[in-house]
Specification:
Elements (H helix, E strand, L loop, with lengths): L11 E10 L2 E12 L3 E2 L4 E2 L6 H25 L5 H12 L3 H14 L3 H18 L11 H14 L4 H20 L29 H8 L6 H15 L5 H5 L6 E2 L2 E5 L6 E5 L2 H8 L24 H25 L10 H10 L5 H8 L4 H8 L5 H11 L2
Antiparallel strand pairs: 1-2, 3-4, 5-6, 6-7
Helix pairs in contact: 1-2, 3-4, 3-6, 8-10, 8-11, 8-12, 13-14
Protein name: Site-specific integrase
Keywords: DNA integration, DNA recombination, DNA-binding
Family: Belongs to the 'phage' integrase family.
């Protein structure tokens, strides 16, 4: 049946198997979601209007058949079992495979249009599968010992960083939690937490350019037009408090009104308004020759991209960013900047220059953070005055 109590953001509903005994009912999630218009409530099948109707109906029939087998077995051997126990038997028969649940997880990312995260996590799951040397993994075998062996494999054979290893563990834990939330497995064998596998995220090193290095970028000469363009986009990002490159590339001339920039952040859809600094205006004016109308994109990289195709758009932004970073690396070498110059470091550079000069509440607004805690945790990477003064008081004798 269609479970109408849990509509997702894309207006789809989960398909469930309903099990009833002695007027008590339990529901088993199949992991599949459809729009209400694609569900035939009388026949309990997916309508032909759905592009994958045949395959999905076959899948649902298989799941229902497996559930019936369990129920018949219970009736024949122990008909006194509660409906909750029957449900547990069904889900244990159907979905104890870790990689089956991982497909549901990846499918959910696809539906939420988290394409970059889906691709990254799919790659991590393939590495985990290669480590195991098999296509299936029962949740009962996913224990502390196995996870510690996998951590050591990543650490010593794959030479992965501690932060990357933490990302793998977070992914496995997320899929495990998904299986628990859908009553596929029991929490009692949970391999994460105190006394088991504890995920510790190491502090990431955030180093931004200093004032002299940024000024050298502003005055750079003798570079190619492509390299200068990359520098311009980097500076625009920096001048607007480290706006992310994906948002910079999507800026349109219509986003600028009365000396202010109005745009919606791609990461969390927040509406942002910032003053256009004079330095930004000078750079923007340099691109007005290519302007065809008020809704035209400021920068050319995404002009031929279909914005409605979010997967293609995400891929294109990644490609452009990679090209920018290559050009910025060359510029950094010419300017003898010994830090890794990339589009993302524009945000760190703003944090480094602001340091502890600006009240944290104002920085929260500039960074567009929802929580002041996020701002404090981010900015503490660049606030050194108090610790520097304390050190001087001790050693300057």
């Amino acid at each position: 049946m269609l479970w109408k109590h849990d509509k997702k953001k894309d207006n789809t509903f989960p398909l469930v198997i309903r099990v009833t005994k002695n007027r008590k009912t339990r529901y088993i999630f199949t992991g599949e979601y459809v729009l209400q218009k694609d569900w035939d409530a009388e026949k309990n099948v997916i309508k032909k209007s759905h592009p994958n109707a045949t395959r999905m109906n076959s899948f649902l029939l298989k799941k229902l058949s497996e559930a019936h087998d369990v129920v018949l077995d219970v009736k024949a051997n122990d008909n006194k079992q509660s409906v909750s126990n029957i449900k547990k038997k069904i889900v244990n028969e159907q979905n104890t495979d870790f990689f089956t649940i991982s497909k549901i997880y990846l499918n959910n990312l696809e539906k939420r249009k988290k394409f970059h995260q889906k691709d990254s996590d799919a790659g991590r799951l393939n590495i985990f599968k290669a480590f195991l040397g098999k296509e299936h993994l029962d949740f009962n075998d996913l224990n502390v010992s196995l996870l510690e062996k996998f951590q050591n494999h990543l650490r010593y054979e794959k030479k992965r960083s501690e932060r990357t290893i933490a990302n793998y563990m977070i992914l496995i834990r997320t899929i495990y939690n998904l299986a628990i939330s859908q009553s596929i497995i029991d929490r009692r064998d949970y391999p994460f937490g105190r006394g088991k596998v504890q995920i510790k995220i190491p502090e990431s090193e955030k180093i931004g350019l200093n004032l002299d290095e940024i000024q050298s970028l502003e005055k750079v000469t003798g570079i190619t037009s492509a390299q200068q363009h990359a520098v311009n986009v980097w500076l625009i990002s920096f001048y607007f408090a480290g706006v992310r490159v994906g948002d910079v590339l999507k800026l349109r001339w219509s986003d600028f009104k009365d000396g202010r920039l109005y745009y919606r952040m791609g990461k969390n859809k927040k509406l942002v308004s910032l003053k256009v600094p004079d330095k930004s205006q000078v750079l923007l004016d340099g691109y007005k020759e290519e302007k065809q109308n008020i809704n035209d994109l400021v920068f050319p990289e995404l002009k031929a991209t279909n914005f409605k195709d979010e997967r293609t758009l995400t891929t294109r932004v990644k490609t452009v960013t990679r090209n920018f970073n290559r050009r910025l690396e060359i510029v950094a070498g010419k300017l003898e900047i010994d830090k890794k110059l990339s589009m993302h470091i524009a945000r760190h550079s703003f944090g480094n220059i602001s340091g502890d000069k600006i009240p944290i509440q104002m920085l929260q607004k500039l960074y567009r953070h929802s929580s002041i805690t996020t701002t404090v945790n981010y900015q503490q990477n660049f606030m050194h005055k108090e610790t520097d003064d304390a050190l001087d008081k001790v050693i300057n004798f």
